[in-house]
Amino acid sequence: MVPRLSNGVDTPLFEIKQIPRKGRGLVARINVATGTRILCEKPLLTVQSEYTTPVDAENMFAAQLKALPKASQREFLSLHNTNPGKYPFTGIVRTNALPCGPSSSVGAVYPTICLINHSCVPNCNHSWNSDTGRETIHAIRPIEAGEEITIAYDCGRVSAVRRAFLKVNFGFDCICRACSLPAAELAASDARRERIQALDDAIGDASRMASRPSDCLRDCHALLQALRKEYDGCTVVLSARAYYDAFQICIAHGDEARASVFAERAYKIRVICEGEDSLETQRMLSFARNPASHPTFGICSFGWKRSRAMVPKGLDAEQFEEWLFKMK
Ligand SMILES: C[S@@+](CC[C@H](N)C(=O)[O-])C[C@H]1O[C@@H](n2cnc3c(N)ncnc32)[C@H](O)[C@@H]1O
């Protein structure tokens, strides 16, 4: 089967194929460039995370399904179910629903996106665009013709944690490239993910940001390096978050110059991972253009006060990074 894209592009980017030990999946038909929007889909069904009883949940899904056109009902019923039995609709939802945003309690089921298998080192990013009410899939590195298209269903913790999460929430044992690494390499990957988590926690400490901003900025630098190594140089949305953290540290201390560079970098990553029409992408662009519009401008101090025009010129790449992250 060769689906056509619904966004006006007439080149079929992928086909649906059987993938060994994973059921169906999407495979690239042609080479796909980083940042390409591969899919953009409306939900078939949306799901609140909490229902009072399993029967309530099943009845709710049945009612939503009944209201759909016949073709959509067939699409929903053809989706994989790791938990068939007494509550078939709930089983399909549990196997397939993706959250509508990173911390949303609402999930959604899609006709084609739900055929994309998981990888702990995915080549695509999935994101919910609340403006358009659609889920989008973007390539976060070049994908070769014949390669499987993958997304991460989880948020990338150490192997034991994410594997347990995938088992409990999606009902499968992950066989992706990262989970199949030899023991020593898996341990190294886990150590990097532990470090990523520890750095992220340290950067999120507001009192440290106020009292030791240079340390926080250096943690952002270390976090970005760890992400690059762990995710094989892919453009991951976690890097956009790290740049936005760096932006917030600088702007809280009055430095519009560094803040504008960090927001510009966060913007460019969001364009790749989510597209120009994502609200978060647009938010980063507005901060790149006017960092002082951020509500925390100067909230900690004006100790780093520097206008946007004071971004240094004529430095080589290494010198610029040293300036940007206050390495000296
Ligand atoms: C959302 S569905 C993806 C499409 C599915 N393969 C199909 O045939 O319709 C999720 C299911 O795909 C399989 N799957 C996805 N990613 C996998 C992975 N990394 N390792 C093993 N199985 C995977 C599991 O059976 C999982 O429950």
Structure description:
Helix 7 (213-230) runs antiparallel to helix 8 (237-252) and helix 8 (237-252) packs antiparallel against helix 9 (256-274). By secondary structure, the protein is an alpha+beta fold. The protein folds into 2 domains: 14-170, Beta-clip-like (Beta Complex); 183-324, no CATH class. The strands form 4 sheets. A 3-stranded antiparallel beta sheet has the order 3-9-8. Strands 4-6-5 form a 3-stranded antiparallel beta sheet. Strands 1-2 form a two-stranded antiparallel sheet. It contains 11 helices and 10 strands. 43% of the residues lie in helices and 13% in strands. Residues 22-25, 79-80, 82, 95-96, 114-115, 117-119, 170-172, 174-176 line the site of S-adenosylmethionine.
Q: Quick recap of the structure?
A:
The strands form 4 sheets. A 3-stranded antiparallel beta sheet has the order 3-9-8. Strands 4-6-5 form a 3-stranded antiparallel beta sheet. With 328 residues, it is α+β, with helices and mostly antiparallel strands.
Question: How is this fold's topology laid out?
Answer:
Layout: E1 14-19, E2 23-28, E3 37-41, E4 45-48, H1 54-66, H2 70-77, H3 88-96, E5 98-99, E6 106-109, E7 117-118, E8 124-129, E9 134-139, E10 150-151, H4 159-170, H5 183-203, H6 206-211, H7 213-230, H8 237-252, H9 256-274, H10 279-289, H11 317-324
Parallel strand pairs: 7-10
Antiparallel strand pairs: 1-2, 3-9, 4-6, 5-6, 8-9
Helix pairs in contact: 1-3, 5-7, 7-8, 8-9, 9-10
S-adenosylmethionine is lined by residues 22-25, 79-80, 82, 95-96, 114-115, 117-119, 170-172, 174-176.
